[in-house]
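Field guide to reading this record: the first block holds the primary sequence, the second block holds the structure written as discrete tokens, and the final block holds curator observations. Each block starts with its own label. This record concerns TetR/AcrR family transcriptional regulator, catalogued under organism Flaviaesturariibacter amylovorans.

BLOCK 1 — SEQUENCE
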Amino acid sequence: MTIAARKQREKEEMRQLILDAARRIFMEKGFAGASMRTIAEAIQYSAGTLYLYFKDKDEIFHALHEEGFVKMLEYMAPLAHVADPFERLKAMGHVYIDFARKNPDYYDLMFIMRAPMKCMEHEKWEEGDRTLGILKSVIRECQAAGRFPGKDVDGLAFTIWAGVHGIAALYVRNRVQAFEGVDPETLVDAGQRNFIEMLERA
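BLOCK 2 — STRUCTURE
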């Protein structure tokens, strides 16, 4: 390995170390309670070191969002081979909720945790935009095949996202415990089935 290649690898490893620590800090303290100093302390480096990689905590938060969306898109990738667009759409809902189940910290940070608008507008959300674009594209394919006649794509995409997000968010934040005596996993599975039945009637 060349010196340049080794330095690049070390830089990437350090960047990932910062992101992993920041994700834990954001989950423990929330966005407002996190700072460059607390993140630096978690990895036993000076705050000045962090500024060599990120200009502020907003940029770190944005990077974690993008990291989460990359992981979500990896979950979605196999669905590209599902020929029927409506079957693909239903499978996307299952995969979305599965991602939330297996990556609750990422999901909370991406879709639930409150952050100021200056952070949310920090940079273009390329991977997030790509994920939403895939959903809208599949809806258009469904319409071309005769599904959802006359429905506005943006409005329908929002409704579908809101539906699966509601199930995922209630699970991630342990709100399904309100249903006493019902296994959370069973409840989530039932919720998915009911939502799909509503889509089939749309």
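BLOCK 3 — OBSERVATIONS
The radius of gyration is 20 Å.
DSSP finds ten helices and no strands in the chain.
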